[in-house]
Sequence to fold (213 residues):
Amino acid sequence: MSNATYNANGDNGDQGSTEGELNQWKHRPPYRVHDKAEDFKVRYQGSCHCGKVKYQLSREKPLDAKYCHCTTCQKIHGSPFQWSAIFHKDDINFTHGHHDLGWYESSEKTCVHKLPCKVSCAYCRTPIMDEGRNMILLFPTLIDFKSPEDRKNFDISCHMFYGRRVLDIPDGKPKWTGINDQSDLIEDSPQDAVNDLKRKRQGENEEKNDKDP
Fold:
């Protein structure tokens, strides 16, 4: 099917229908709307700028939170870095705008719901989340925090792609050259984190050498 067949809101020309093979994503997390009878405890609420897209979150703390300084995040968000928080797909419930979402798959530069992809409001274009194959990355700036304690639950654990930063952030957090735990720690990283990484990689090398004939 050509890209021209897909509407900007991802509904594939069906004007909001939930039927058909192309619309099966609407019945799966994170887009499946939770029934009122389900045990979905609302902990946070978030929305896009225009308010067409609104959602709830049930998890008190994200699985992780990070600042990403890669050039893709800088361009798409129009900001020095992206603040993201990782959640399970079942942790979110869209209450409004279920059919007002648009997609962008950055590697092929297509507006098709193909994982992993970037999800935004099809009206005001606010970035809503990045949807991966197993998790979602939400943007905490969309969440209506009720207290400083709620905001603190989303404190970051590290910086990624810090070598591509456009400003320094001397916050004492670990700073990775690429994806965390898969690259090297650089400037301003806590010495304990640097030492732990050295020990970890030394142990991995020793284990690899023991297995080699």
Observations:
- The helical segments are 71-77, 148-152, 191-211.
- Residues 1-18 have pLDDT under 50 and may be disordered.
- Residues 16 and 99 are 6 Å apart (CA to CA).
